[in-house]
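Take the subject:
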Amino acid sequence: MDDEWERDRLPGRLAGAFPLTGPLPGRIGSSAPELPRGALMLADEGCGIHVRLILDGPRRGEIWRLGPDWGGFVSVSAGFRDWYAGWLRRP
């Protein structure tokens, strides 16, 4: 995931508008690197799956999970507080 953290530091990556207006379930494949524009990586869940906070657009403030090989890019929480509280309660 170090590559993903580095990509978030590229000029304009986080300032750009988040490109999705709705979930993109299923395998994404090669288009995955373009999707996280406007979304800050919060956590690495392993196996290439990571969680992002949407920074701009109609989905602003939502938490989405990106699993390009099989899970797609889908919303997992309406806001950071709920997601973080759930994360803290994990065993």
